[in-house]
């Protein structure tokens, strides 16, 4: 069951959405990162949507109107495989690759979510950034490890099998409750602040 926030009841936030969007916003379970691969296998999830739910320790992010569930707020949604992403022929499913390899055990180059969370936590975690020869943001391995450890402690994930994930993702970002960590397709007022924080990384 979705827990409402101070800025609206669940029905206020989701009444105009399709049934699959409503189902995604009311997950039966928020999965710990340590359990995500087993959960994906047990539920035969190969591709679809995933949501990242954070506790109150992620600084600066406005949560007014965001969907809350079990003490965490849904701040970001994504899809697997990524829209227009390259086809890959190996044993991992798109959902496993996206969540485990890119977002949790990847780098700030492989995951826009990691980059955003790192930008928000740069002072709290004393993270250091640099830019490669193509001006792309990088962190050394020890700082990536600190970021991963923080995410494991403070975030959970919901996943949903869906045959047309990009369409549903667009509906959620454009017409659903606020998702302040999504940048693409977003009109959320926090977008400008988050974009500025990301652009400033590694420039000093």
Please explain how this structure is put together:
- This protein has 204 residues and is α+β, with helices and mostly antiparallel strands.
- It has one domain (10-199).
- Helices cover 37% and strands 15% of the residues.
- The protein is built from 8 helices and 7 strands.
- Strands 1-7-2-4-3 form a 5-stranded antiparallel β-sheet. It has a two-stranded antiparallel ribbon with strand order 5-6.
- A hairpin with a 2-residue loop joins strand 3 and strand 4 (72-80).
- Helix 5 packs across helix 8 (190-200).
- The longest helix has 14 residues, at 141-154.
- Mean pLDDT is 90; it is low at 1-11.
Which SSEs are present, and which pair or pack?
Elements lengths: L9 H5 L4 H7 L5 E2 L3 H7 L5 E7 L13 E2 L2 E9 L13 H11 L7 H10 L8 E2 L5 E2 L2 H14 E7 L3 H11 L14 H11 L4
Antiparallel strand pairs: 1-7, 2-4, 2-7, 3-4, 5-6
Helix pairs in contact: 5-8
Please sum up the structure shown.
This protein has 204 residues and is α+β, with helices and mostly antiparallel strands. 37% of the residues lie in helices and 15% in strands.
């Amino acid at each position: 069951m979705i827990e409402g926030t101070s800025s609206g009841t669940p029905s206020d936030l989701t009444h105009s959405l399709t049934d699959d969007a409503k189902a995604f916003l009311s997950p039966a379970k928020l999965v710990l990162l340590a359990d995500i691969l087993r959960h994906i296998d047990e539920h035969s999830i190969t591709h679809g949507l995933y949501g990242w739910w954070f506790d109150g320790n992620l600084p600066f992010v406005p949560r007014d109107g965001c969907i809350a569930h079990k003490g965490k707020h849904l701040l970001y949604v994504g899809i697997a495989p990524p829209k227009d992403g390259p086809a890959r022929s190996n044993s991992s499913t798109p959902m496993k690759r996206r969540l485990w390899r890119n977002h949790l055990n990847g780098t700030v180059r492989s995951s826009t979510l990691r980059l955003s969370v790192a930008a928000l936590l740069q002072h709290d975690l004393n993270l250091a950034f640099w830019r490669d020869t193509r001006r792309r943001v990088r962190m050394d391995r020890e700082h990536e490890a600190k970021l991963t450890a923080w995410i494991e402690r403070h975030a959970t994930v919901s996943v949903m099998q869906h045959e047309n994930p990009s369409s549903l993702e667009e509906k959620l970002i454009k017409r659903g409750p606020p998702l302040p960590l999504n940048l693409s397709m977003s009109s959320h007022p926090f977008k400008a602040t988050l974009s500025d924080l990301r652009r400033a990384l590694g420039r000093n």
